[in-house]
C-alpha cells in the first residue's frame, strides 16, 4: 500500500525531517520526507541559475560516483552537483573497474569502503545491488539507478519539475507510457507520485506491463489514446532493449504507431499538459521531435536542470550527520 498522501510541506525539524542514512529508493519514504527533499532542492535552483557565490558545504568530503552501467546525464549531474557543493568528486566507470575482471559485489563494496569515501553514488545493472553495497559501507549511499528496481533521484526531479510547472503534484493526472516492465524510472515515479497524491496512469503494451501493477495505486491502460484523456502530465519512457531478450514488441514502427507521442495524440491531454522524458530519448519511437522540442509543452531540459538541484539536496542532506550540522549529528 502506498503511504497516506501528504499535501503540505510540514515536516519535523532536523534529522527527523529525513531520518534515513541512505537513499536507495522512494520505497519506504514518507510523503513529508519526499517533500523535504523537494523543498531543499528548490533552494538550489536560483543559485545554480545565477552562479551565485558558491556554498562549498561539502568541502573536504570525498564523493565517489561508482557507475557499473553506462550513463551520461546522471553521472554528469551527480558530478556537477558534488562539485558545486565543493566535494572532491571521483568517478569510477565499469569499463575500468575490477567488476569486469570478476570481482564480487561484496569485494567491490569492501574496496569502496576502504577508500574512506564520505558519500558513494552507485549505478548498477542488478536490481538490489545498491542496497547490498549500502549495507556494507560506513558512509551514506545514493542510488543512481539499479537494474529494474529504483531510480529515486529521477523520480524526485520529475516531481519537482511537475510541482514547479503545474503548481502542485497533488491531484495531477500523470500518464507514464512506455516500457513500464523494465523501467526503474516508472517504479520510482509510481511510488513518489502516488505518495504525493497524484492520479497516476501507466500505459504499455501488455507484454511491457508488470502483473498486478494496480498494487502501486495506479490505473493501467493498454490504449494510449484512452490513457491520455484529460492528462496534466505525460511522461514518456524508452523501450529498454538492453533489459529484454527480444520479442516484447513487434517492431519500433508498430510501437510508434500505438504508443508514440505525436502532436496529434497530445491533443487528447489537457491543452496545457506537460511532456516529460528522463532521457535518453529515441526520437520517432516513443516521442516525436516536434513534441520533444515543443517550446511550451516540453519540460525535458528543465528536468535536467532540476536534476542537479535535486542531487545537490540529496548529497547535502545525507552528509549532514557526518558534517555535524546542528540537529542532524
Ligand atoms: C533512465 C535510466 O537510466 O534509468 N535514464 C536516466 O537516468 N536519465 C532511463 C533510461 O535509461 O531509459
Automatic annotation (TrEMBL):
Binding-site residues for carbamoyl phosphate, renumbered to this chain: 73-74, 123, 151, 154, 279-280
Binding site for L-aspartate: 101, 184, 238
Record-linked InterPro entries: Asp/Orn_carbamoyltranf_P-bd, Asp/Orn_carbamoylTrfase, Asp/Orn_carbamoylTrfase_sf, Asp_carbamoyltransf, Asp_carbamoyltransf_Asp/Orn-bd
Aspartate/ornithine carbamoyltransferase Asp/Orn-binding domain mapped to chain residues: 171-317
GO cellular component: cytosol
Domain of life of the source: Bacteria
The reaction(s) this protein catalyses: carbamoyl phosphate + L-aspartate = N-carbamoyl-L-aspartate + phosphate + H(+)
Keyword Transferase among record annotations: yes
Family recorded in the similarity comment: Belongs to the aspartate/ornithine carbamoyltransferase superfamily. ATCase family.
Description of how the protein assembles with itself and partners: Heterododecamer (2C3:3R2) of six catalytic PyrB chains organized as two trimers (C3), and six regulatory PyrI chains organized as three dimers (R2).
Function: Reversibly catalyzes the transfer of the carbamoyl group from carbamoyl phosphate (CP) to the N(epsilon) atom of ornithine (ORN) to produce L-citrulline. Catalyzes the condensation of carbamoyl phosphate and aspartate to form carbamoyl aspartate and inorganic phosphate, the committed step in the de novo pyrimidine nucleotide biosynthesis pathway.
Protein name: Aspartate carbamoyltransferase
Species whose genome carries this gene: Sphingomonas guangdongensis
Lineage summary: Bacteria, Pseudomonadati, Pseudomonadota, Alphaproteobacteria, Sphingomonadales
